[in-house]
Amino acid sequence: MCLKTSTNKHFLFHKNFRLNGDLYDAVNVAEDDEWRRIRNHVTPSFASGRIKEMFNIMQHHSNKLILSLQSKVDNNEVITIKDIFGPYSMDVMTSCVFSVDLDSINDPSNPFITHATKLFRFSVPLFLFQGCFPVFIPLLNLLGVSLFPKSSTTFFRAVVEKIRAERSESSRKSMTDVLQYFLNYQTNKVSKERETWGLNDHEILSQLTMLLFAGYETSATTLVFLAYTLARNPEVMKQLQQEIDLTFPNKGLVQYDSLMQMEYLSSVVDECLRLYPPAARIERMTKETVRIKGITIPKNMIVQVPVYALHRDPDLWPDPEEFKPDRFSKENKHNINPYAYLPFGMGPRNCLGKRFALVMIKLALVKVLQTYSFLVCEETEIPLKMHPEGLVGPLKPIKLKLKKRTVVSDVEN
Ligand code: HEM
Protein backbone atom coordinates (compact mmCIF):
# COMPACT_ATOMS: atom_id res chain seq x y z
CA MET A 1 0.00 0.00 0.00
CA CYS A 2 1.41 3.40 -0.92
CA LEU A 3 0.13 6.44 0.97
CA LYS A 4 1.30 9.80 -0.24
CA THR A 5 -0.40 11.58 2.62
CA SER A 6 0.58 11.21 6.22
CA THR A 7 -0.69 11.98 9.64
CA ASN A 8 1.47 11.71 12.68
CA LYS A 9 -1.54 11.53 14.98
CA HIS A 10 -2.31 7.91 14.26
CA PHE A 11 1.03 6.56 13.09
CA LEU A 12 3.24 6.38 16.08
CA PHE A 13 6.67 5.30 17.07
CA HIS A 14 7.06 2.03 15.24
CA LYS A 15 10.60 1.34 14.23
CA ASN A 16 10.89 -2.06 15.79
CA PHE A 17 12.04 -4.84 13.45
CA ARG A 18 11.27 -7.25 16.36
CA LEU A 19 14.33 -9.45 15.80
CA ASN A 20 16.81 -7.00 17.26
CA GLY A 21 18.87 -9.38 19.36
CA ASP A 22 20.80 -7.52 22.01
CA LEU A 23 19.95 -4.12 20.51
CA TYR A 24 16.36 -4.26 21.82
CA ASP A 25 16.81 -1.01 23.77
CA ALA A 26 18.58 1.07 21.10
CA VAL A 27 16.86 4.38 20.36
CA ASN A 28 15.83 3.36 16.84
CA VAL A 29 14.01 0.22 18.01
CA ALA A 30 12.64 1.13 21.45
CA GLU A 31 8.92 1.88 21.60
CA ASP A 32 6.48 4.27 23.24
CA ASP A 33 7.56 5.69 26.65
CA GLU A 34 10.87 3.80 26.64
CA TRP A 35 11.70 5.30 23.25
CA ARG A 36 10.69 8.80 24.43
CA ARG A 37 12.92 8.56 27.50
CA ILE A 38 15.90 7.23 25.55
CA ARG A 39 15.50 9.69 22.68
CA ASN A 40 15.33 12.57 25.19
CA HIS A 41 18.72 11.48 26.49
CA VAL A 42 20.38 10.94 23.12
CA THR A 43 19.11 14.07 21.35
CA PRO A 44 21.11 16.69 23.32
CA SER A 45 24.37 14.88 22.55
CA PHE A 46 23.86 15.94 18.91
CA ALA A 47 22.60 19.47 19.58
CA SER A 48 24.00 22.24 17.34
CA GLY A 49 26.35 23.58 20.03
CA ARG A 50 27.92 20.15 20.47
CA ILE A 51 28.22 19.60 16.71
CA LYS A 52 30.16 22.87 16.50
CA GLU A 53 32.52 21.48 19.14
CA MET A 54 32.89 18.26 17.16
CA PHE A 55 33.72 20.22 14.00
CA ASN A 56 37.41 20.33 14.95
CA ILE A 57 37.47 16.53 15.10
CA MET A 58 35.86 16.38 11.67
CA GLN A 59 38.46 18.86 10.38
CA HIS A 60 41.24 16.61 11.66
CA HIS A 61 39.86 13.57 9.83
CA SER A 62 39.11 15.47 6.64
CA ASN A 63 42.75 16.62 6.55
CA LYS A 64 43.86 13.01 6.86
CA LEU A 65 41.48 12.08 4.07
CA ILE A 66 43.10 14.62 1.75
CA LEU A 67 46.60 13.41 2.65
CA SER A 68 45.62 9.81 1.93
CA LEU A 69 44.44 10.80 -1.55
CA GLN A 70 47.67 12.43 -2.64
CA SER A 71 49.70 9.36 -3.65
CA LYS A 72 46.67 7.67 -5.24
CA VAL A 73 46.09 10.68 -7.48
CA ASP A 74 49.81 11.07 -8.28
CA ASN A 75 49.85 7.42 -9.41
CA ASN A 76 46.68 7.93 -11.47
CA GLU A 77 45.06 5.07 -9.54
CA VAL A 78 41.49 3.92 -10.04
CA ILE A 79 39.96 4.58 -6.63
CA THR A 80 37.26 2.53 -4.92
CA ILE A 81 35.41 5.50 -3.49
CA LYS A 82 34.00 3.70 -0.44
CA ASP A 83 37.62 2.96 0.60
CA ILE A 84 38.21 6.65 1.21
CA PHE A 85 34.86 7.89 2.48
CA GLY A 86 34.03 4.78 4.55
CA PRO A 87 37.09 5.14 6.80
CA TYR A 88 36.58 8.92 7.04
CA SER A 89 33.01 8.40 8.21
CA MET A 90 33.99 5.66 10.68
CA ASP A 91 36.90 7.70 12.10
CA VAL A 92 34.62 10.71 12.63
CA MET A 93 31.96 8.55 14.28
CA THR A 94 34.30 6.72 16.70
CA SER A 95 36.13 9.94 17.59
CA CYS A 96 32.94 11.88 18.30
CA VAL A 97 31.12 9.03 20.02
CA PHE A 98 33.89 7.76 22.30
CA SER A 99 37.12 9.62 21.49
CA VAL A 100 38.84 6.71 19.78
CA ASP A 101 40.85 7.62 16.69
CA LEU A 102 40.83 4.36 14.73
CA ASP A 103 42.90 5.81 11.89
CA SER A 104 41.03 3.49 9.56
CA ILE A 105 41.74 5.99 6.78
CA ASN A 106 45.19 4.34 6.71
CA ASP A 107 43.74 0.86 7.30
CA PRO A 108 40.47 0.44 5.35
CA SER A 109 40.29 -3.30 6.18
CA ASN A 110 39.89 -2.40 9.88
CA PRO A 111 37.34 -4.82 11.48
CA PHE A 112 35.18 -1.83 12.49
CA ILE A 113 34.55 -1.14 8.81
CA THR A 114 33.86 -4.75 7.82
CA HIS A 115 31.48 -5.36 10.73
CA ALA A 116 29.65 -2.05 10.30
CA THR A 117 29.08 -2.79 6.61
CA LYS A 118 27.72 -6.27 7.43
CA LEU A 119 25.27 -4.87 9.97
CA PHE A 120 23.27 -3.15 7.29
CA ARG A 121 23.09 -6.03 4.87
CA PHE A 122 20.48 -7.86 6.87
CA SER A 123 18.55 -10.69 5.31
CA VAL A 124 15.55 -9.49 3.26
CA PRO A 125 13.81 -12.95 3.34
CA LEU A 126 14.08 -12.97 7.15
CA PHE A 127 12.82 -9.36 7.32
CA LEU A 128 9.79 -10.25 5.17
CA PHE A 129 9.18 -13.51 7.04
CA GLN A 130 8.97 -11.84 10.44
CA GLY A 131 6.72 -9.12 8.95
CA CYS A 132 4.31 -11.66 7.43
CA PHE A 133 4.38 -14.21 10.26
CA PRO A 134 4.81 -12.25 13.51
CA VAL A 135 3.53 -15.32 15.37
CA PHE A 136 6.98 -16.93 14.90
CA ILE A 137 8.86 -13.98 16.40
CA PRO A 138 8.99 -15.26 20.00
CA LEU A 139 10.35 -18.60 18.76
CA LEU A 140 12.96 -16.91 16.55
CA ASN A 141 13.99 -14.71 19.49
CA LEU A 142 14.30 -17.80 21.66
CA LEU A 143 16.54 -19.38 19.04
CA GLY A 144 18.72 -16.25 19.09
CA VAL A 145 17.83 -15.33 15.48
CA SER A 146 18.47 -11.64 14.84
CA LEU A 147 18.20 -9.43 11.77
CA PHE A 148 21.59 -7.99 12.63
CA PRO A 149 24.48 -10.48 12.23
CA LYS A 150 25.33 -11.66 15.72
CA SER A 151 29.08 -11.74 15.12
CA SER A 152 28.98 -8.01 14.27
CA THR A 153 26.75 -6.87 17.13
CA THR A 154 28.90 -8.90 19.54
CA PHE A 155 32.05 -7.32 18.11
CA PHE A 156 30.74 -3.78 18.60
CA ARG A 157 29.33 -4.45 22.01
CA ALA A 158 32.63 -5.93 23.23
CA VAL A 159 34.64 -2.96 21.95
CA VAL A 160 32.24 -0.39 23.36
CA GLU A 161 32.17 -2.24 26.69
CA LYS A 162 35.97 -2.20 26.87
CA ILE A 163 36.19 1.52 26.12
CA ARG A 164 33.54 2.26 28.68
CA ALA A 165 35.27 0.13 31.34
CA GLU A 166 38.65 1.74 30.69
CA ARG A 167 37.36 5.22 31.21
CA SER A 168 38.62 6.08 34.63
CA GLU A 169 37.13 8.68 36.90
CA SER A 170 40.10 10.97 36.30
CA SER A 171 39.99 10.75 32.49
CA ARG A 172 36.23 11.36 32.55
CA LYS A 173 36.46 15.03 33.38
CA SER A 174 38.38 15.95 30.24
CA MET A 175 36.11 14.05 27.86
CA THR A 176 33.42 15.80 25.86
CA ASP A 177 32.31 12.89 23.66
CA VAL A 178 28.87 11.23 23.48
CA LEU A 179 29.90 8.39 25.81
CA GLN A 180 30.91 10.89 28.48
CA TYR A 181 27.67 12.75 28.02
CA PHE A 182 25.78 9.50 28.75
CA LEU A 183 28.02 8.61 31.70
CA ASN A 184 27.41 11.97 33.31
CA TYR A 185 23.72 11.14 33.48
CA GLN A 186 24.05 7.43 34.10
CA THR A 187 21.87 5.40 36.44
CA ASN A 188 21.53 1.78 37.37
CA LYS A 189 18.20 2.34 38.99
CA VAL A 190 15.20 0.58 37.55
CA SER A 191 12.31 2.56 38.88
CA LYS A 192 9.87 5.25 37.97
CA GLU A 193 12.52 7.80 38.87
CA ARG A 194 14.59 6.55 35.92
CA GLU A 195 12.82 8.96 33.67
CA THR A 196 14.91 11.74 35.13
CA TRP A 197 17.99 9.66 35.94
CA GLY A 198 19.56 8.84 32.60
CA LEU A 199 20.45 5.58 30.89
CA ASN A 200 21.64 2.35 32.49
CA ASP A 201 24.73 0.38 31.43
CA HIS A 202 23.01 -1.82 28.87
CA GLU A 203 21.17 1.13 27.37
CA ILE A 204 24.38 3.14 27.05
CA LEU A 205 26.11 0.32 25.20
CA SER A 206 23.14 -0.14 22.88
CA GLN A 207 22.97 3.57 22.02
CA LEU A 208 26.69 3.78 21.28
CA THR A 209 26.61 0.68 19.08
CA MET A 210 23.53 1.86 17.25
CA LEU A 211 24.87 5.39 16.72
CA LEU A 212 28.05 4.00 15.19
CA PHE A 213 26.38 2.06 12.51
CA ALA A 214 23.37 4.40 12.04
CA GLY A 215 25.89 7.14 11.27
CA TYR A 216 28.66 5.25 9.51
CA GLU A 217 27.07 3.51 6.54
CA THR A 218 24.47 6.20 5.72
CA SER A 219 27.02 9.04 5.65
CA ALA A 220 29.70 7.05 3.83
CA THR A 221 27.24 5.89 1.16
CA THR A 222 25.97 9.44 0.64
CA LEU A 223 29.53 10.66 0.05
CA VAL A 224 30.11 7.80 -2.41
CA PHE A 225 26.98 8.71 -4.39
CA LEU A 226 27.95 12.40 -4.32
CA ALA A 227 31.32 11.55 -5.88
CA TYR A 228 29.61 9.37 -8.49
CA THR A 229 26.93 11.89 -9.48
CA LEU A 230 29.41 14.76 -9.61
CA ALA A 231 31.80 12.75 -11.80
CA ARG A 232 28.87 12.09 -14.14
CA ASN A 233 27.75 15.74 -14.05
CA PRO A 234 30.94 17.80 -14.48
CA GLU A 235 29.00 21.04 -15.07
CA VAL A 236 27.44 20.74 -11.62
CA MET A 237 30.84 19.92 -10.13
CA LYS A 238 32.37 23.05 -11.73
CA GLN A 239 29.63 25.26 -10.36
CA LEU A 240 30.11 23.75 -6.93
CA GLN A 241 33.89 24.27 -7.09
CA GLN A 242 33.29 27.91 -7.99
CA GLU A 243 31.11 28.34 -4.92
CA ILE A 244 33.76 26.63 -2.79
CA ASP A 245 36.55 28.85 -4.15
CA LEU A 246 34.45 31.94 -3.58
CA THR A 247 33.59 30.94 0.00
CA PHE A 248 37.08 29.77 0.97
CA PRO A 249 39.52 31.62 -1.36
CA ASN A 250 42.95 30.07 -2.00
CA LYS A 251 41.95 26.74 -0.51
CA GLY A 252 41.36 28.55 2.76
CA LEU A 253 40.40 26.89 6.01
CA VAL A 254 36.83 25.56 5.86
CA GLN A 255 34.84 27.28 8.59
CA TYR A 256 31.68 25.90 10.12
CA ASP A 257 29.35 28.88 9.66
CA SER A 258 30.37 29.61 6.07
CA LEU A 259 30.12 25.91 5.21
CA MET A 260 26.57 25.72 6.50
CA GLN A 261 25.58 28.82 4.53
CA MET A 262 26.71 27.48 1.14
CA GLU A 263 23.54 27.35 -0.95
CA TYR A 264 24.65 25.41 -4.00
CA LEU A 265 26.44 22.84 -1.85
CA SER A 266 23.21 22.31 0.05
CA SER A 267 21.24 21.85 -3.16
CA VAL A 268 23.78 19.34 -4.49
CA VAL A 269 23.63 17.25 -1.30
CA ASP A 270 19.80 17.45 -1.14
CA GLU A 271 19.47 16.35 -4.77
CA CYS A 272 21.89 13.48 -4.27
CA LEU A 273 19.83 12.30 -1.27
CA ARG A 274 16.72 12.48 -3.46
CA LEU A 275 18.23 10.15 -6.05
CA TYR A 276 19.93 7.91 -3.49
CA PRO A 277 18.20 8.06 -0.10
CA PRO A 278 20.09 5.50 2.04
CA ALA A 279 16.80 4.29 3.58
CA ALA A 280 14.62 3.14 0.67
CA ARG A 281 11.60 2.83 2.98
CA ILE A 282 10.56 4.01 6.39
CA GLU A 283 7.80 2.42 8.40
CA ARG A 284 5.27 3.15 11.10
CA MET A 285 2.66 1.12 12.94
CA THR A 286 -0.90 2.32 13.54
CA LYS A 287 -1.75 2.79 17.21
CA GLU A 288 -5.45 2.77 16.37
CA THR A 289 -7.64 1.97 13.37
CA VAL A 290 -7.62 4.94 11.04
CA ARG A 291 -9.32 5.88 7.79
CA ILE A 292 -7.40 8.05 5.34
CA LYS A 293 -8.79 9.01 1.94
CA GLY A 294 -11.21 6.09 1.97
CA ILE A 295 -8.62 3.49 3.00
CA THR A 296 -9.06 1.83 6.39
CA ILE A 297 -5.85 0.85 8.09
CA PRO A 298 -6.41 -1.44 11.08
CA LYS A 299 -4.74 -0.98 14.44
CA ASN A 300 -1.24 -2.46 14.74
CA MET A 301 -0.68 -2.58 10.99
CA ILE A 302 2.77 -1.70 9.69
CA VAL A 303 2.68 0.89 6.93
CA GLN A 304 5.75 1.31 4.79
CA VAL A 305 6.47 4.64 3.14
CA PRO A 306 8.33 3.96 -0.11
CA VAL A 307 10.86 6.79 0.08
CA TYR A 308 12.94 5.72 -2.92
CA ALA A 309 9.83 5.41 -5.12
CA LEU A 310 8.43 8.77 -3.93
CA HIS A 311 11.75 10.45 -4.72
CA ARG A 312 11.59 9.20 -8.32
CA ASP A 313 7.86 9.65 -8.94
CA PRO A 314 7.41 11.64 -12.20
CA ASP A 315 4.19 13.20 -10.83
CA LEU A 316 6.23 14.80 -8.06
CA TRP A 317 9.56 15.42 -9.77
CA PRO A 318 9.89 16.41 -13.44
CA ASP A 319 12.67 14.33 -15.09
CA PRO A 320 13.03 12.31 -11.89
CA GLU A 321 16.07 10.35 -13.05
CA GLU A 322 18.06 13.54 -13.82
CA PHE A 323 20.50 15.03 -11.29
CA LYS A 324 19.28 18.64 -11.05
CA PRO A 325 20.39 20.41 -7.84
CA ASP A 326 18.43 23.52 -8.85
CA ARG A 327 15.25 21.79 -7.71
CA PHE A 328 16.48 22.64 -4.21
CA SER A 329 17.57 26.24 -4.89
CA LYS A 330 16.20 28.99 -2.65
CA GLU A 331 13.75 30.01 -5.40
CA ASN A 332 12.47 26.49 -6.14
CA LYS A 333 12.51 24.54 -2.94
CA HIS A 334 9.29 25.98 -1.54
CA ASN A 335 7.50 24.10 -4.36
CA ILE A 336 8.54 20.76 -2.91
CA ASN A 337 5.92 18.88 -0.94
CA PRO A 338 7.69 18.04 2.36
CA TYR A 339 6.12 14.56 2.38
CA ALA A 340 7.57 13.84 -1.06
CA TYR A 341 11.14 14.26 0.16
CA LEU A 342 12.07 12.05 3.10
CA PRO A 343 15.78 11.15 3.15
CA PHE A 344 15.88 11.69 6.92
CA GLY A 345 12.33 10.57 7.60
CA MET A 346 9.67 12.76 9.18
CA GLY A 347 8.00 13.52 12.49
CA PRO A 348 9.09 12.71 16.04
CA ARG A 349 11.07 9.64 14.95
CA ASN A 350 13.00 11.40 12.24
CA CYS A 351 16.78 11.06 11.97
CA LEU A 352 18.45 12.15 15.14
CA GLY A 353 21.83 12.63 13.45
CA LYS A 354 20.65 14.66 10.44
CA ARG A 355 22.51 17.87 11.24
CA PHE A 356 25.65 16.01 12.33
CA ALA A 357 25.61 13.91 9.13
CA LEU A 358 25.18 16.96 6.88
CA VAL A 359 28.14 18.74 8.51
CA MET A 360 30.40 15.70 8.20
CA ILE A 361 29.37 15.09 4.57
CA LYS A 362 29.64 18.71 3.44
CA LEU A 363 33.03 19.18 5.05
CA ALA A 364 34.55 16.11 3.37
CA LEU A 365 33.11 17.03 -0.01
CA VAL A 366 34.34 20.62 0.13
CA LYS A 367 37.82 19.56 1.25
CA VAL A 368 38.17 17.06 -1.61
CA LEU A 369 36.80 19.45 -4.24
CA GLN A 370 39.11 22.26 -3.12
CA THR A 371 42.00 20.21 -4.50
CA TYR A 372 40.56 17.52 -6.76
CA SER A 373 37.85 16.79 -9.32
CA PHE A 374 36.08 13.42 -9.64
CA LEU A 375 36.37 11.69 -13.02
CA VAL A 376 34.49 8.80 -14.57
CA CYS A 377 36.90 6.11 -15.84
CA GLU A 378 36.66 2.81 -17.73
CA GLU A 379 36.04 0.94 -14.49
CA THR A 380 33.05 3.14 -13.54
CA GLU A 381 29.80 1.22 -13.85
CA ILE A 382 27.14 3.17 -15.79
CA PRO A 383 24.28 2.66 -15.18
CA LEU A 384 24.70 1.36 -11.68
CA LYS A 385 23.25 -1.93 -10.51
CA MET A 386 21.87 -1.47 -7.02
CA HIS A 387 22.29 -3.85 -4.09
CA PRO A 388 19.05 -5.75 -3.44
CA GLU A 389 19.53 -5.91 0.34
CA GLY A 390 19.87 -3.47 3.22
CA LEU A 391 20.43 0.22 2.61
CA VAL A 392 20.33 1.76 -0.88
CA GLY A 393 23.81 1.19 -2.26
CA PRO A 394 25.64 -0.02 -5.35
CA LEU A 395 25.94 -3.78 -5.94
CA LYS A 396 29.59 -3.43 -6.90
CA PRO A 397 31.91 -0.82 -5.38
CA ILE A 398 31.93 2.47 -7.31
CA LYS A 399 35.27 3.22 -8.96
CA LEU A 400 36.42 6.64 -10.13
CA LYS A 401 39.59 8.59 -10.74
CA LEU A 402 40.49 11.90 -9.17
CA LYS A 403 42.31 14.70 -10.99
CA LYS A 404 44.26 17.46 -9.29
CA ARG A 405 42.88 20.90 -10.05
CA THR A 406 45.60 22.98 -11.68
CA VAL A 407 44.69 26.47 -10.53
CA VAL A 408 42.42 26.64 -7.54
CA SER A 409 39.87 29.10 -8.91
CA ASP A 410 40.03 27.90 -12.51
CA VAL A 411 37.11 26.47 -14.41
CA GLU A 412 38.53 23.28 -15.85
CA ASN A 413 37.86 22.24 -19.42
C1 HEM B 1 23.19 10.84 5.31
C2 HEM B 1 23.14 10.34 6.52
C3 HEM B 1 21.89 9.80 7.18
C4 HEM B 1 20.67 9.50 6.64
C5 HEM B 1 20.23 9.65 5.19
C6 HEM B 1 19.83 9.03 7.71
C7 HEM B 1 18.51 8.64 7.56
C8 HEM B 1 17.70 8.22 8.59
C9 HEM B 1 16.32 7.80 8.43
C10 HEM B 1 15.55 7.75 7.11
C11 HEM B 1 15.85 7.47 9.66
C12 HEM B 1 14.42 7.00 9.99
C13 HEM B 1 13.53 8.23 10.18
C14 HEM B 1 12.04 7.95 10.24
O1 HEM B 1 11.61 6.80 10.33
O2 HEM B 1 11.26 8.93 10.16
C15 HEM B 1 16.92 7.67 10.61
C16 HEM B 1 16.83 7.44 11.95
C17 HEM B 1 17.88 7.60 12.84
N1 HEM B 1 19.14 8.09 12.55
FE1 HEM B 1 19.82 8.66 10.75
N2 HEM B 1 20.55 9.06 8.88
C18 HEM B 1 21.81 9.52 8.60
C19 HEM B 1 22.85 9.73 9.51
C20 HEM B 1 22.76 9.54 10.85
C21 HEM B 1 23.82 9.83 11.81
C22 HEM B 1 25.20 10.43 11.47
C23 HEM B 1 23.36 9.45 13.04
C24 HEM B 1 24.03 9.54 14.39
C25 HEM B 1 24.92 10.38 14.70
C26 HEM B 1 22.00 8.96 12.85
C27 HEM B 1 21.18 8.50 13.87
C28 HEM B 1 19.88 8.09 13.70
C29 HEM B 1 19.07 7.58 14.80
C30 HEM B 1 19.52 7.39 16.25
C31 HEM B 1 17.80 7.27 14.25
C32 HEM B 1 16.60 6.70 14.99
C33 HEM B 1 15.73 7.81 15.56
C34 HEM B 1 14.53 7.28 16.34
O3 HEM B 1 14.02 6.20 16.03
O4 HEM B 1 14.08 7.99 17.25
N3 HEM B 1 21.69 9.03 11.52
N4 HEM B 1 18.03 8.13 9.93
Automatic annotation (TrEMBL):
Membrane topology: Peripheral membrane protein
Subcellular location: Endoplasmic reticulum membrane; Microsome membrane
InterPro entries found in the cross-reference section: Cyt_P450 (IPR001128), Cyt_P450_CS (IPR017972), Cyt_P450_E_grp-I (IPR002401), Cyt_P450_sf (IPR036396), Cytochrome_P450_3A (IPR050705)
Sites where the protein binds heme: C351
Keywords in alphabetical order: Endoplasmic reticulum, Heme, Iron, Membrane, Metal-binding, Microsome, Monooxygenase, Oxidoreductase, Transmembrane, Transmembrane helix
Pfam families for this protein: p450
Record GO terms (molecular function): heme binding; iron ion binding; oxidoreductase activity, acting on paired donors, with incorporation or reduction of molecular oxygen; steroid hydroxylase activity
GO terms for cellular component: endoplasmic reticulum membrane
Domain of life of the native organism: Eukaryota
TM helices/strands, residue ranges: 126-148
Cofactor(s) needed for function: heme
Main subcellular location: endoplasmic reticulum
Record SUPFAM superfamilies: Cytochrome P450
Family according to the record: Belongs to the cytochrome P450 family.
Xref: PANTHER family: CYTOCHROME P450 FAMILY 3, CYTOCHROME P450, FAMILY 3, SUBFAMILY A, POLYPEPTIDE 65
Name this polypeptide is given: Cytochrome P450, family 3, subfamily A, polypeptide 65
Origin organism lineage: Eukaryota, Metazoa, Chordata, Craniata, Vertebrata
